[in-house]
Amino acid sequence: MDFKNLLAYQKGFDLAMAVYEISKSFPREETYSMTDQIRRSSRSVCANIAEAYRKREYVKHFVSKLSDSDSENSETSTWLDFALKCNYITREEHNNLASQVDEVGKLINYMKNNPKKFGVKVH
Question: How many C-beta atoms lie closer than 10 Å to residue 123's C-beta?
Answer without folding.
Answer: 4
